[in-house]
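Subgroup meeting minutes
Present: P.N., E.W., G.H.
Scribe: E.W.

1. P.N. recapped why we're keeping a running log of single-chain structure predictions: easier to compare across weeks, and new members can see raw inputs and outputs side by side.
2. G.H. added today's entry (477 aa).
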Amino acid sequence: MNNTQTVTADEILRSAQELRAEVGVDFHEKLVEAVYTDAARLADRAVTRPDQKARFDLDATIDRIVTDRRWGFLLMILLFTLVLWITIEGANVPSRMIANLLLDTIHPWLKSLAAAISMPWWLDGLLIDGMYLATAWVVSVMLPPMAIFFPLFTLLEDFGYLPRVSFNLDALFRRAGAHGKQALSMMMGFGCNAAGVVATRIIDSPRERLIAIITNNFALCNGRWPTQIMIATVFIGGLVPAHLAGLISAASVVGVALLGVGFTFLVSWFLSRTMLRGEVSTFSLELPPYRPPRFWQTIYTSLIDRTIYVLWRAIVFAMPAGAAIWLVANITIGGTSIAEYIINFVNPFGVLLGLNGVILLAYIVAIPANEIVIPTILMLTVLVTGVDTGAGAGVMFELESGADMLSLFTAGGWTLLTAVNLMLFSLVHNPCSTTIFTIYKETGSAKWTTVAALLPVVMGFGLTFFLAQIWRLLAAL
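Output recorded in log:
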């Protein structure tokens, strides 16, 4: 036993001598020198001595601007506004092309085909005017903005800017009892709330992740931008001279989006001190170096992993929504459609909120997808007023002219208060069914999914009611 141990020890010593010969007798000195060299290099980057001119560091120079307490926030707002402007403007042409294909070409062809095979009118309406049209609206309105926003968002992430945004907003979220990384999931929510909910996976704390999930609905997703832009253009822009209409309309939409950010902080603060009370977790945020974005990988990741995934979920929920919308608008009882019965029933409550029954019903039947709110409102307004738009009663459609929209809404009893409260309710109302389903999948809790769905609705009712009473009180003076 002792001989075996001696042989083993001798072999170890021999191997150690051979290895020492290979690395050289000055290995220890070289290792220590390398350690001190790296330490000196890091110190030179971080320390500025009075008698030494500071070395130029591009990353540090950019960070002094983008993480500045004043200029950093201004740059953040301007850059994000630019991304939204590119998304909105860039989506106009492809959205119109897809709409022309799906709505103006394929839809009439499907109607002709249904007539040629003598399809019953109710089946024709349910499948083509209901399910198909709703799906076509979702694809034409939702696909182009997401295909633009998500790549831009991912490019900023690859470039290294988004961690700086989280750094800038960390103090504000910490004061609200939330996590600094919530800034990233909130910004993702501006593209799609369902994607924003999935993005909360970067938050390790279950409590703070739940706060981020519940409040993500206050980020104005791309499905709600058409409502905001249309109302702002038709009503708000009409209050000022024509040369200022576009600027004022855009400013009002950005104002609503910033109001949503304010609600995010407010509700996060409320939840962290009530239902989700707890200590704010700390985390180390490493600011990565700036680097050129990987363009093609970004396109693939954004289109396949985000855009197509979210769009497919929206389509799945839009088809039954289209069927429900067509049924309530075309099934009549005693010569009156179900939609008109519901509108007449909820209209007093809608007027109390500064809205109307058409808007409330539109948001009920359009829960599956915010993209179909506007065509649903137009369809229901025609149904109630009897105005002839050439589209036919009980069929979703869109008006190109702002003057035609204003004329139709005026015939439906709309006022400036109705328009303003619609913009607010579009911001503060229940999430779409795709987002609700995603919340349930991410939390696995029916309780918190219900809270996330109902809390914004209660807030929206309270906000519009309060504004309506103040508005009417001032008007009476």
